[in-house]
Predict the 3D structure of the following.
Amino acid sequence: MASIRSICILRLSAIGDTCNAASVVQAIQEHYPSARITWIIGKAEAALLRGLPGIELIVFDKRTGLAAYRKLRQDLAGRRFDVLLLMQLALRANLASLCVSAKRRIGYDKARSKELHSLFINERIAPASKPHVLDTFRQFLTALSIPLTPPRWNIPVTPEDELWARSQLAPTAQKHLVLVPAASAQERNWLPERYAQVAEHAHAKGFAIYLCGGPAEPEVELAARVASLCKVPVYNLVGQSSLKQLFALIKNATLVIAPDTGPTHMAVAAGTPAIGLYAHSNPARTGPYGLQHYTVDAYTPLLQQALGSDAPNAPWGKRLKGKDLMNHISVKQVCDMFDRLTEEQAL
């Protein structure tokens, strides 16, 4: 293992998975400080992670279609790596790995392999003993004989982004709640009137409220609806920040509340407590790492209802479908979790 001098990581998306993978990449860097590490990554994800010290980021922009593969081949022309970690199962990522020349091509165990993944690797990680995505990612460390230590993150923030974040904070407030109403899939969004009631509960506890999210029209509309229903002041920043600025704001916040979406994992990487709202996917697998006990979990009872006695044997990654599943999360559940977390964390 001491001969490893160059490592390529291929993990294109998404924001939450990229945050989880970052701790693994930085653990590799710590163990092999002299190795050259290259990360093939999606465009938005690269915007969040740019500036990682000692990590070369090569952007694969899927929106450009076949041109993305041609550019990747050009970027890697004449290069050969000691190890490729193929940390994504999607066919797009598997095909992109053909542009990478590497002696060892390490991918997922057979149980998780799909979309022809097995054809693109020559080694496999061992199955993870825990269900979380990050615990599976950490099996790539084991494959490189790197001891497992508690995950750590060091995602850099520029002074300009830090200044922007601090300038958004209410000057008279000492506690700050970042509320991210929207996920990428609208079925994972909670109801606007319920977000508003939670915001009012947090405000009564002394928190300033910040609505955050991307510039997509559904996100902007949902945030505007939440703000209009709130009977207390809120700062609506949806669509007004870059990913780096949002990360800086989360880092300066006291608490984050969000559905199953990237900012919950950004909060973990920033060291900020988070409450996740889950109905479609298993929070034990995709919840904010180390904070799953603070998720509001509608998924587990809904899975039991759907599968009955087969629920404990549900496949890894089992997702539930339905536009109304988030309705099973009540305002009381979220407010109770808010009170529990703030008490236990002395916030």
In short: The chain is about 40% helix and 15% strand. The mean pLDDT is 96.
